[in-house]
Amino acid sequence: MRSLLITNIGELVTGNPAWGEGPLGIRRNAALVVDDRRVEWIGRAVDAPAADARVDAGGAAVLPGFVDSHAHLVFAGDRAAEFAARMAGQPYTGGGIRTTVGATRAATDEQLRTTVARLRGEALRQGTTTIEIKSGYGLTVADEARSLRVAREFTAETTFLGAHVVPAEYADRTDDYVSLVCGPMLSAARSAGARWIDVFCERGAFDADHSRAILTVGADAGLGVRIHANQLTEGPGVRLAVELNAASADHCTHLSRADIDALAGSSTVATLLPGAEFSTRSPYPPARALLDAGATVALATDCNPGSSYTTSMPFCIALAVREMAMTPAEAVLAATRGGAAALRRDDIGHLTVGARADLVVLDAPSHLHLAYRPGVPLTTTVVLNGELV
Ligand SMILES: [Zn+2]
User: Fold this and answer.
1) What is the distance of C-alpha 251 from the center of its chain?
2) 367 marked as binding residue
3) Could you tell me the pTM of the whole model?
């Protein structure tokens, strides 16, 4: 494979304080060599060795590719009318998920694949080099399995979310649906290549006992655990995530002091999804309290057609800085290393020697511009797994 030199980097965000200044480990006037899909060399631009190909960053900032650890890309239909109704004052309840389930079941494999490809392309053009993709709009054995097979064509980070909501045909038979999820649906999800299992633990979805049962059987089957927790209410999801040593508790919008302390004392990442609060006009999660307590925080898009139809990690960074009192450095770390931690990966989310060569060149001199220039497409070049995109 051809080696690649990226030189004349005004600000190289290594993402590791041991490799440069400040929490982002920043190096100035730097260069970086990629070989065999890894970062092989980092140093001063004036010392840069030759390589087969060369990119002149022109003094711009180079960052690790964004890690979006929470996305629902396998679906059909759109819910723009529901969004408009919400903006006109109707509250968000999560019930619209069933609308998407109907459309998804009716779609062909090719329609689902086309939607995932379009959204994955959008995300990549904005600098997302790793994306987690969930099932959860099929909610039958066959439809969950095919959702995961389609997701697996685009990412290794696939998540079985059969416990998204109880589908209409199981109304008032939640126990029966949980048995289906824990039995034949889980088996089919494993065969379809699922790496993770997830549950929407929330009033109106799955309670703590059902969530624990599903996640425990999933973990016993070898899947990693993640939870949609405390999005709409101060529920039991976060405590369950910590109890089960989940990789991530996602949303974390309504947290008690005990929830924050539990996350801070655990290896469970608090994954914040500010696109959901933006799109449902809801209060933002207490990022400052989580960071001050010492919790590991990730940012992700929650891309889905109902409550957060964005693929943009830069938009989430801007929201985190403006609305959640995170510093730009904290937000960039959360969108890179934080996302990697939420996927229990140490090969991505940073740019140090040996890391996977996933990186973004910005049309800006500094990472600060991601929040300072919201809504502006700043990504000019993306390297994905060692190759220029
Ligand atoms: Zn979600």
Assistant:
1) 11
2) no
3) 0.97
